[in-house]
Each structure stands twice: as C-alpha cells, then as structure tokens.
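idk why but the lab printer keeps eating my pages so im just putting this in chat instead. protein + 16G:
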Amino acid sequence: MADAIAAAAAKHPPAEKVKYQYGTAGFRMKADILDSVMTRCGLIAALRSRSLKGRWIGVMITASHNPPEDNGVKLVEPMGNMLAEDWEKLSTQMANLQTPEEVSKFYHETATRLKIDRTAPARVVIARDTRASGARLLACTLEGLKGAGAEYKDFGFLTTPQLHYLVRCFNTEGTHQEYGKPTEVGYYEKMGNAFQRALKGKEAAGSLTVDCANGVGGPKLTQLIKYIPKEALEIIVVNDNVIKPESLNVDCGADYVKTNQRAPPSSKAGPNDRCCSLDGDADRVMYYFKDANNVFHLLDGDRIATLAASFLGDLVRQCGLADSFKIGVVQTAYANGASTQYVERDLGLQVVCTNTGVKYLHHAAEKMDIGVYFEANGHGTIIFSEATLDKIAEYEPRNPGQAQALEVLRACVELINQAVGDALSDMLLVEVILAHKQWSCNEWLATYTDLPNRLLKVKVTDRGLFQATDAERKLVKPEGVQARIDDVVKKVRQGRSFARASGTEDAVRVYAEAATRAEADDLANKVAKIVETAGTLP
Ligand code: 16G
Ligand code: MG
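predcted complex ->
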C-alpha cells in the first residue's frame, strides 16, 4: 500500500515555488499547476472516507466563477457539507509536501495519529464542471484514488450542487432520512416533482430567462426543463455554450451581473422580463430585470433570503405551526443594512451574521429550526433541522386551509437542496413563491429599498496583516485602523463600513453603505485610503 501511494504521487510532482492552500472553497488556481494537488486530494478523500468507515465523500473539480484557465477542487462531507476544517488543514499540508515518500509517510502517519483503519473501505463520488482542463485533472485525481485503493463513481459533468446531492443520497440510502435516488435523473425527478407540487396549480407569470455563464449549468438546466411542464413555467436558456470552454464566465454569469450591476451584454430581455444568472458551477444565482424606464435592478441573495423567509413564515403560520418552530436568517456583513432591518422589523425574525464563506453560514443555519442562509452574492439555501423535518412529516392538519399550506410546505422541503446552496433549486423556489404571491419582479423589489453601497478592492503588501473579528465587521489588526474607520463612519448618515482580507484573492475588500449614493462612494473611498495607508509597508 505504501508503495502504491508513493507511486501515485510520483506521477505528478508539485509545481516549484508554489504554496498551495485549501481556501474558502477548496484549492483554486491556474489549472496548469494543479495536477499534483488533484492526486493528493484523491488520497485525502480516500482517507477521509476511511476515517468515517467508508461513508461516501465527494470530490468536485471546478473553479466556479473564475476565468476559464483556472480550475480547482473541493471535497464534500457525507451529508453534503463542506469539508471539515481539520481536514482542510491536512489537505493543505498534503498538497505542499515535496517528495512521493513524504506523501506516503504523511498518509500513513495521519492514519495512525487519527486511529483510522487503513483497511476500511474508501468510497468517493467525483464530478467536474466543463473546463477544458477538467479531463486531465480528473485523471490526476483518479490516480490518487486508485493509489489509495478507493472505490469511486465518476459522474462526469455535474453542477457542484448535483454532486453534493449525490453524496448525501449515497450516504442516506436505506435510512429514514433517504435524500433521493443517487442518480442524475433522480435529481431532476425530485426537483421537477417537488416544483409542480409546490406550485399547486399556480402558474408563473411570464417566462424566465436563465443565463448559464456558458458553464455546466446550461446542459443540466436543459435536462431539468424536461421535468417541468411549460404551462407551469417557461424557461429560456441563454449563454449555454459549453462547446467553447474559453467562453465560460466571460461577460456573463452571476459574478458578472453582481460585480458590474448590469445584465450580460448578450441579453435580449425586454423591460420587466424576469432574468437570472448562474455562476460557472451553478451554486449561486442572481435575479434581475430592467424596469419600464430601462433601469436595471438586481435581486440578489439578500432578496432571495427575505422572499423565502417571508414565504416560509406565512406557510408555517397557515399550517398552524407558528409556535412549533422558529425561522432564522443567516447573513454576512455584505448583506445590505436595509435587508437586515426588513427581516428583523417587518418579518420579526432573528438575524445572525457570520464570516464570509458558505460553510460558516451553513453551520450557523444548522443551529436553527428553519435556517435561511444567503450571501448577497447569491450563495445560499434553507435548511430544516431534523426535529423540524419530523414535525412537518408527522403533523396532522386541522382544517382544509392548513392541509393546503402543509402540502406546499412539504413540497418546498423537497424542492430546496439542503445539502448545499443550489442555483437551480433556489431559482425554482423563487419561481414558486412569485407564482403563489402573483408577484412580478417589481413587487418583489418594492418590499424594501436597498441602501446605496459600494464595494472596493484594495491592493496591499500583505493581506495577512488584516485580522478581523465580530463576523468580519471589525479589524483588530493592524492596530488603530478600526478606530480610524469608526471615525469616518460616524460622520455619515446611515453609514456602515468594514474592511476584510479576501479569502480568495490577494487583496483587502472594503464595503460601505450610506443614505445616499454620493455618501456611500465617499465613505468607501475614505476607508479604502485608510486601509491602503495601513497596508502599504514603507
Ligand atoms: C468563495 C465562497 C463564497 C464567498 C467568497 C468570498 C464558497 C462555496 N464560496 O467563493 O461563499 O462569498 O469566496 O470571497 O464557500 P472573498 O473572500 O474573496 O471575498
Ligand atoms: Mg460557484
């Protein structure tokens, strides 16, 4: 066994002078320096599975919204969660070892230290997005899996959430928590059925145009549409060119729309046409439309969270279950202050703020009966605690009104991908809610008014100097910087601003919001200046 592991590692030596890091969402960098990382992730995935006595672990090869020449890999825990933090560290250590012998030694020493039975079965589900480098990197990963003697199932091209779905399905097969059929078709059937049941005869007003970022979401949405009757919802798929992988995320996709605050240039949507954009691996979604005056409006993750929280709140009340469980909303510091206020004051729900990154929000939501979690950038989902799920399943309605609401609630539970944020699932949920409320995007937008805000990126000598606390809303280091930020913030009406080191790029991000656009811009610039001065070493 020792030799097989060293032999696998020997096939792909690490790139010279590169420091690899399992970041916020796995390893992500230029694809041409990832071969060694993939093989070693194969080994780690196998070991992780063995540490859990052969439960299925997921490996997703993707770099999400990054440019086409990048790629990456992330590992998925048995219930579809992101990799446990101590295993992120092990992955980073493994990726940075130099020789095959060191890799083999690390594998065995880790197994011994963590009391992992090396003869236990190792089971891994693997998939990739549509990047040109994906086939090569898959082969590198398989080398690691084979070296470790793992059993694996390669599902070819999938969206990231589909892979998370499959992992959860395999691990819950035959239990009372069975999540679904562990096949790609099983995913479409589950979504399609749940969507129709949740609609309960309601129809979406007008069509929905979906920009798929020229990524894997395109062909997968085209499959999913076969399970959705056109009378219920007409979906127009655009930017679904996966034959030309160099067009991935270029001038389209969720990140383009969020960053540029405009529709993709290729968009042919007319006034009031409902549109949304997925990112490259379809785990985040952004809604938007142009109004009658051709003004662009974004309906981001905050909007999806508020829409879903208010709808679920109503449903739970209509079922007569209002006293049985509490709905909470999880946001990050990037959530617009107006959305936080809307949830707390208008919806009367609790808001929790966490660090940026899906795993932090997910963990916070797991502590709630019903946890609605979304980042402003469109990552997110809703999770129901086990006790909540049992109660919803067992509840006996007392009148036809309750029965109706309960059916919709149960269908929504099925429709929502509880393994991880899923652009396709989130999109169908939004469509269900808009259909029930008979709302257009205008009415959705009118629920509250966003505070004007500005996001800036500041280049610094070492972003590691910037250490934050309080869900990344306050800097503890460099010393004195937070006091200077507080000073400029307090002079601005409804001012709020924070700076945090990016987890994915070599930069510090500055966010500011205020009562007016001019004040928000001015505040952002002032805080950026403070950060720049503190972060530039003489
Ligand atoms: C990653 C995270 C995303 C987060 C973003 C922040 C996942 C799957 N993705 O893309 O949640 O918003 O990083 O990037 O966790 P930043 O640290 O560069 O601002
Ligand atoms: Mg993504």
